[in-house]
Amino acid sequence: MAKKVFISAGGSGIGRCIAEAFLNNDDEVFICDINAQSLEQCQKDYPKLHIYACDLAEPEQIKLMFAEAIKKLGHIDVLVNNTGISGPTIAADELSFDDWNTVINLNLNSTFLITQLAIPLLKQSGAGVIINMSSIAGRLGYPYRLAYSTSKWGLIGFTKTLSMELGADNIRVNAILPGAVDGDRVQRVLQARADVAQSSLEKVTQNALKNQSLKYFVNPKHIADLCLFLASDSGRSISGQILPIDGDKQCLS
């Protein structure tokens, strides 16, 4: 039976890969994103896709967006919380309070509000699934990315607690923790780290792969595959779990 799937920040990158995976599985998918142009391109490529342009840093926009999601989907079987920004790459004593708040607001507060609004719709499913996109930064420390790492660790407690609260409603809650994902974003992050360390991009890239068993960055399609598995009947007894997908990364350095 086709599932009804809601994905935040689904217009590009990991979010788009996840949306494509569910669409190719013949599920009904609703995505939101701040980038209207990316959304329009997604819908052009997948005409059955539901899209909504929304700034997830704004609670009122989230509420309006959910009203539209209810009209389109009726209920939700799968919620993928993919929202997140990296924030500045900067030492803790130089991080401004405004930058800290910006990251925490989008990565944690918006995820909370989206989930709170989705819970009644997930309960209607009878077998709801919540997938929270954390990060390797939610498993290891991440120098010069304090706000980001803190927000991604917060999602671990969020996941564990929700799995306990919602289990009685047969709602499964898990977190995926990607490592460095292949694509433009990881290149920007690595360049920022190179700038801070006054090093070359090549040297920083080699160092990033040095402490993991698999010597390549994560393919975003593999993250989408994991989402499909967790949302499937094969994952029906998996909840409250923290699932790294990072090439067996041992430390960030």
Molecular structure report:
It comes from Acinetobacter calcoaceticus DSM 30006 = CIP 81.8. The protein has 253 residues and is of the alpha/beta class. The protein has eight helices and seven strands. The protein has helices at residues 13-24, 36-45, 59-73, 97-123, 146-166, 184-197, 201-210, 220-231, and strands at residues 4-7, 28-33, 50-53, 78-81, 129-133, 172-178, 242-245. A seven-stranded parallel beta sheet has the order 3-2-1-4-5-6-7, sandwiched between helices. Strand 1, helix 1 and strand 2 form a beta-alpha-beta unit. The chain is globular and about 50 Å long. The model has no long low-confidence stretch (mean pLDDT 95).
Summarize the structure.
Helices cover 48% and strands 13% of the residues. By secondary structure, it is of the alpha/beta class. It has a 7-stranded parallel sheet with strand order 3-2-1-4-5-6-7, with helices on both faces.
